[in-house]
Specification:
five-stranded antiparallel beta sheet, alpha+beta, 148 residues, signal, 25% strand, 2 helices, Sleep_regulator, QVR-like, glycoprotein, Protein sleepless
Length: 148
């Protein structure tokens, strides 16, 4: 008979090792070369999927990064794979001669496909918790049916 604690432990270990086994995947794009690479993406729109890469071209890739700010004199967004944690911060920049300030942000995350928008990381954590909870419920139900 299945020991419920062992099954739950196996699910947690498998989930924790998913990224190690398969590597990280990130969205990669640059708004300077592709106008659909905007600051705010809806990850359910099919056009974003073409930018999802497996990061195999970056040695020891562990992070996905999303930057928005001024690049080469233009306001834009970049998304890419990285082996470095760039941190999470926003700041306001005012260039000499400009009358307004611009918000520039760097957001770093470490889960698969986490850099289309800020909220996807929260979504993936919620999804993972839901899968584990559902699995435990099914196992408890199955165990109670066997014991009857």
């Amino acid at each position: 008979m299945w020991n419920l604690n062992k099954v739950v432990l196996a699910l947690v270990v498998a989930g924790a090792n998913f990224q190690v086994m398969f590597g990280i995947g990130c969205f990669e794009c640059n708004s300077a070369s592709n106008f659909t690479c905007t600051e705010f993406w809806d990850p359910t729109i099919a056009v974003t999927e073409k930018f999802l890469t497996n990061c195999a071209h970056v040695y020891n890739a562990q992070y996905c990064v999303k930057m928005n700010g001024i690049f080469d004199g233009k306001l834009g967004t970049k998304r890419f794979c990285s082996s470095k944690n760039w941190g999470d911060y926003c700041e306001y920049i005012q260039r000499p001669g400009d009358t307004q300030q611009y918000r520039s942000c760097v957001l770093t995350c470490s889960t698969y496909g986490c850099n289309p928008a800020v909220s996807l990381t929260q979504f993936s954590h919620t999804l993972w918790f839901s899968v584990v909870t559902a699995s435990v419920s099914v196992l408890r139900y199955s165990t109670s049916m066997v014991l009857q």
